[in-house]
């Protein structure tokens, strides 16, 4: 079983690199690197969500023909995972066994952005620090911010411009939703993922802020394995 992990805004595949250390050998965790960061730093930015999803699909399309697989997405990654599911179906491919949506309400919820790409840099950075997305000490590094801010702001921009369009069919694989109890996102809004799925949705709650995943890797991997490796 292969689990494709999709990044949060400003994130790269490095965010998930240590997850494999906690996982059963039967679960292969593959973090997806998207444009503008990490190994793909020089490739520019996506203009919109559609191009991002098309690009991700081009990276996974051959692999999902021969292996059972699932998606995990945190924050921005939930939107990528949601639209990627329908891209896979439109291309006539096998659907994923499971989708894990983490750290974000469903796209049904409108006006759900905590930060804006048009904010002045100082205000923008302060909001990201509140979310737990960057340590305050690191924000003082002008060199780091010179590289990081454009990436993060473009990711926020494509989320702001994303237009949810109701699909003719709901998601037909099982889904799970992860939520941080101290997140600025209202946990009641996270429940709206259930409205987009034909099957029963499972909800998991963790202590911590928007980036609760960093403190609960072992528990999250246990959930992955429980859902994806029933023989465990």
From TrEMBL:
Gene3D superfamilies found in the cross-reference section: alpha/beta hydrolase
Domain Thioesterase, residue spans: 2-226
InterPro entries in the cross-refs: AB_hydrolase_fold, TEII, Thioesterase
Superkingdom: Bacteria
Pfam assignment, any one: Thioesterase
GO biological process, alphabetically ordered: lipid biosynthetic process
Similarity comment: family membership: Belongs to the thioesterase family.
Name of the protein this chain belongs to: Thioesterase
Organism: Paenibacillus alvei
Lineage of origin: Bacteria, Bacillati, Bacillota, Bacilli, Bacillales
